[in-house]
Amino acid sequence: MSDYYNAFETSPVPAPGPDAVPPELFRGIYGMPAFVTIPTSDLAASVEFWTRGLGFFELFAIPGSLVHLRRWAFQDVLLVPAETVPEQPPAMSLSFSCVLGQLDSLVEDCRALRPDSVDGPRDTPWNTRDVEVITPENARIVLTAAKPFVPDSQEARNLEAIGITPPDTGRPDGGGPA
User: Fold this and answer.
1) Which of 16, 44, 101, 141 is most buried, by the most CB atoms less than 10 A from its CB?
2) 62 beta partners
3) Is 107 helix (H, G, I), strand (E, B) or coil?
4) pLDDT digits (tens, 9 = 90+) for 100-111
5) What angle do CA 138, 140, 144 make, to 5 degrees?
């Protein structure tokens, strides 16, 4: 990983830490660099789960055709009507960034709406805490929050082993862990 630079200034995701605050919900219109389209057989139930459980809001809707949901900037989901949804969640997942302080309440909210929808939280070798949620459409969503960086931790050693070093090591590009 020799050709990279610290690009945190282009991301809405705050630097990890115990006092990390999520960015404001972003209600502006932009050209979406990426988004997911999720078919649902019950648009109203899906909107309720995504808004009350996962913390999204309805940016706009085209009645009977589409509901555009968003959390932070660049976290866009399009719900579209479908006759059926898959019976089982796919192996593939879609991840959305959170801050650590949000995870517990998101887990509670999702479990209140669908008691068996949440698996985790679990800590990863790359220094995040992840929660997997299965939505009413059987989409596999991962809510992921960066943990504070601890220089002498196993996670720091894991990151260093693949060439990601903390920003305070004197790198001229300011590169550091995600």
Assistant:
1) 141
2) 66
3) helix
4) 999 999 999 999
5) 150
